[in-house]
Amino acid sequence: MRGGGRLREEGALGDLALLADTHLSITGANLAYRIGSFSAGGTLTIDNSGLIGEQTTLSAPSALIRDSHILSDSGTGTLLLAGAQWTIHDNTRIEELGSVTFSGAQTIELQNTAITAGSIDATASSGLRLIQTELAGQTLRLQTPNAAGSGIVIDQSTLSFDDTITLESASTIELRTSRIENFNSLEAVAGGDLAVSGSGITGGEVLLDGASQTLDGIIEGDHVDLISVGSITAATAGLEINAGALDVSAQSIDLTHSTLHVGTGLAQKGQDPDMLELLEDVAPGLLPATSAPNAAFIAQDGVSLGTLTIDGGYLFVRAPFLGAVSIAAPGDLFYNYRPFSDSAPIQVDPNSGSFEVGGSLTLAFGGTGD
Fold it and tell me: Is there a contact between 267 and 295 (Cβ–Cβ < 8 Å)?
């Protein structure tokens, strides 16, 4: 790996356009060349090199960067990486930049790499892999728009961004033994399956959306929203969610192997206005303390939970049944249950678990019952 100190400028490469394969190697600890636009007609290899530039473009059909250091003097410079295949690894550091953009890529693989920039934007049509990599800055967007591709894989890596993180894949998203942290907003949307394994997600607003989801690890956020057209399942390794407010909606929900702790925030789903209006007329004293639930679970095929604690005391469930190990609230608990079909009979599941409340327990049943 190149030395960890400040790079010393050794010379200037300027703007270069080469038709053949190109191998750039600048040896010597902490030596760097100033660069503008550098393009190769064949494979571009940057090895053991230091590059400094304010508006740098590296362009090639295929590129390999290893054991190198790329930065700008101002800390606000731009780096554009244009080409079909990008492989960056072996302790490469890209930092002190305003933006880093990958353009026109089919595949991107970052391994044992650190990138720090105000914004990082990477689109790879066929697949994007991060392995033992650290990305940091203000905003991040990773995209894989090809449904037939390998999607986004984040393995043993850390994403730390102060504002927004967007992960979009027409295929799958996999988070393996990794951390996503410090964000105001995270949106991870997969056209295929979404899997979180042995990982931690900690920040503000969290949205996870996949055709099916399998989750284990820790998810913490002001509002956590889990969405699937298929199933949402907590793996046997265990899932812990700590959320100000929690929304979970899917065809089926099986969070039996989970510990859920919900605060006093307001969920965005789970409304039963007719029932609340009727309750206000006949028994206003039983109305919940807030206008919306703190935790909402909606599933056509049913809901199974592990342990659920709701500080705000307002739970909404719309499903043919709810099963849980335990449901707890430090004060009153208002449990609004509504069959998935309004005309379905109300069924109380004998395995719905124990209620542990510090105050009163109100069970409010919605639906027409016709």
Answer: yes
